[in-house]
Structures are given as structure tokens and as C-alpha cells.
Amino acid sequence: MPSTANTSTSQPLQLHRRVVPAAAQGPWTVDAIQALLDKPLMDLLFEAQTVHRQHWPAGDIELATLLSVKTGGCPENCGYCPQAAEFDTGVKAEKLMEVDEVVRAAQAAKDAGATRFCMGAAWRAPKDRDIEKVSALIGAVKGLGLQTCATLGMLESHQAQALKDAGLDYYNHNLDTAPEYYTDVVSTRAYQDRLDTLQHVRSAGISVCCGGIVGMGEAPVHRAGLIAQLANLQPYPESVPINSLVRVPGTPLADSEPVDPFDFVRVIAVARITMPKARVRLSAGRQQMGEAVQALCFMAGANSIFYGDKLLVTGNPDVDADVQLLVKLGLNGHRTTTTETDDLQAHAQPQGACA
Ligand code: SAM
Ligand code: DTB
Ligand code: SF4
């Protein structure tokens, strides 16, 4: 059965009363997801867009801004990550940022139109005293009227509860790839550790943000395996970030074969079909992607982006470029008639998400 326990606050859009395609049924086998990935691209896009419009307003893209509040020096060895201490990537270890500095960044993100603010820390697992400090950050950011998200590594259940009490709305913790490929990417922790943290987050009543990375040398079956893991979580995540690997020199995965853009679009589409009520976020890798591929990702059902000039330590399209893209595509309420385009671009104020 499809998950009905998803706690997304958005109501299904009533304008499009099409029957949900049979493919939107779960639980999902890897074979069923692989079959979706293998569909002719136009059929897959059509199906994904159809599912999308049954559950979400068209043209609503959530803008989420990231801030690395504790950068570098991480003891884990995730093969994709520029912040792992053992890789020579030029990222220097820093200490946790102070509250006022974080509040300034969050206010700037809000002023630019973001509705969610995600704080990332390069920890394997926070200590209880770290949780206390991050709780202060969460309270301050929430006080600005932003949705809060944090990604701090593995959590114990009492730590998840403390973050919930501090006002945390979402916790990001990615499964990254299929279980069978995970040990090729990271050896300092196990897949089950990730699942345990997700359970602690869910039990504390925090919404789950969980996705993965495409382009780490994985086979198509591993992409299907990742989506199966995500879609079969009970309930599936409220947010699903799909990252295209940012190949950072010095990381073990720096020389990975770049992912075919259409294969990336397929993963977005299949995430949308299998997790209809989730915010599917077109995440890392947009700087390398080009506007046309991003537009295809929106067509495939992506309805969230990271918005701001930086991800955690690597680059992201700058805000002006993103506003122009939203205007050109007529997203987030922007209109794009030829007579109005210049004026809109001059005065564009992103309007954030409806969710
Ligand atoms: N340390 C915490 C953790 O691992 O959960 C939080 C931060 S970590 C940087 C958050 C996520 O960013 C990772 O799980 C991974 O999916 C994504 N990520 C990290 N480096 C990336 C890269 N080079 N390209 C794409 N995604 C990346
Ligand atoms: C997620 O799935 N992607 C974001 C966020 N969650 C924390 C991180 C992307 C990191 C890209 C590489 C970097 O800048 O460190
Ligand atoms: Fe550390 Fe997270 Fe980077 Fe892994 S992804 S090395 S846990 S910061």
C-alpha cells in the first residue's frame, strides 16, 4: 500500500482528478523501481508529472538554504565528502559557529526568499554538549520564522528528543545509496547505523529528510535499491534530497564517471512516483547541471532546491541565477510573458514555498 502516514502539511491538489497510475503502489521491489527507471524517458516524465500534480500545486518550488555551522575535520570516511579529515581536499576544520553569526546568515536567507534553513555539521555523531549548543541555534533560527533542519550525523534517541524540544522541524540523514553498494563508499559506519538514526528521529516526532547521491560509480540497480529503501520506509521521508555527486579533488570519488543527465532526471522522476507527497529536492550538483536539465528535473517532480551561493563547502548557483531561472520557467508564481519578463527579472522576489 502507498504510505498514508506521511505528515506533509500540503493538501493534495483537487484540480487534477486523474486516477493514480498503478505504478504508484507499494511496497516497492527493486525490480519494480528498475522497471520505472527503464521506461522511455517521455513516458516516465509524463507519469511523474501526473503524480506530481495530484499531490502538489504546479510551479511551487521550496527554497531551502544550507549553512555549514561546523565545517571539516570529520572522522568518517565517506568517499564523496570534502569534509572528511583523512582526505586532502583543502577544507580546514573549524569550530561550531556562534549563535549571532548563524542568525545573520538565516536572516539573510529569509530576506532572499528561503523558507527552510538547514544547518550542517561535519560530525560522525554529536556529543550531548554539541546538542545543547545546536539547540540554541535551532531556537534562534526558528525565532526568525524559518523552518529548521539540521544534519549532524548519527543521533541517539535522547538527542533526537532534545532537538525536537528545541524546535527542530526536519533532520537530514541520507542513506546515500543501496545497502549493497554502501560499503564501497564508506567503511567507518554501517547502513544499519543510518537506519537506526532515522528511527530515532522519526520516534522523536521530527520530520525526516533522507535521500542519496547519484554518480558515485553505482550501477542502475543500486539507484533502484536506494529508492526502494527510501520509499519503503514507514512512512517514507517528508523530504527526499537527490544529490548529483560534486566531484571534489582529493576525495576517493573525485574521478567518478559523470552521471548522464537523463539518468539523473530518471531518478528524480522515480522518487516522485514512489513518494508522491514528499518534497523531492534537486540538491547538490546544480552548478554543473545547466538550466535545461534542471527544468527537466522540475518536470520530473522536483519541488525543492538548495538556494544560496554555497552548499556546505562547495558552490551552488548564485541567488540571482536561481531567481532568473524561476522567472524563466514561471515557477513560484513568477509570470513570464515576453512583455513582462524584463520587469519581473528586475524586481523578482522569490516567494518561497506554499508548503
Ligand atoms: N555529517 C553528517 C552526515 O553525514 O549525515 C551531515 C553532513 S553530510 C555533508 C550530508 C550529506 O551531504 C551526505 O549524506 C551526502 O548525501 C551529501 N554530500 C556530501 N558530500 C557530497 C558531494 N560531494 N556531492 C553530493 N552530495 C554530497
Ligand atoms: C543533502 O542531501 N545535500 C546537502 C545537505 N543534504 C546537507 C549537502 C550537499 C553537500 C555537497 C558538498 C558540500 O558542499 O560539502
Ligand atoms: Fe563526515 Fe558527514 Fe562528510 Fe561523512 S558526509 S565525512 S559523516 S561530514
TrEMBL record:
Keywords, ordered alphabetically: 2Fe-2S, 4Fe-4S, Biotin biosynthesis, Iron, Iron-sulfur, Metal-binding, S-adenosyl-L-methionine, Transferase
Essential cofactor(s): [2Fe-2S] cluster; [4Fe-4S] cluster
Binding site for [4Fe-4S] cluster: 74, 78, 81
EC number: 2.8.1.6
Residues the entry annotates as binding [2Fe-2S] cluster: 118, 149, 209, 281
Highest taxon, organism lineage: Bacteria
Catalytic activity: (4R,5S)-dethiobiotin + (sulfur carrier)-SH + 2 reduced [2Fe-2S]-[ferredoxin] + 2 S-adenosyl-L-methionine = (sulfur carrier)-H + biotin + 2 5'-deoxyadenosine + 2 L-methionine + 2 oxidized [2Fe-2S]-[ferredoxin]
Cofactor descriptive note: Binds 1 [2Fe-2S] cluster. The cluster is coordinated with 3 cysteines and 1 arginine.
Subunit note: Homodimer.
Function of the protein: Catalyzes the conversion of dethiobiotin (DTB) to biotin by the insertion of a sulfur atom into dethiobiotin via a radical-based mechanism.
Family: Belongs to the radical SAM superfamily. Biotin synthase family.
Name by which UniProt lists this protein: Biotin synthase
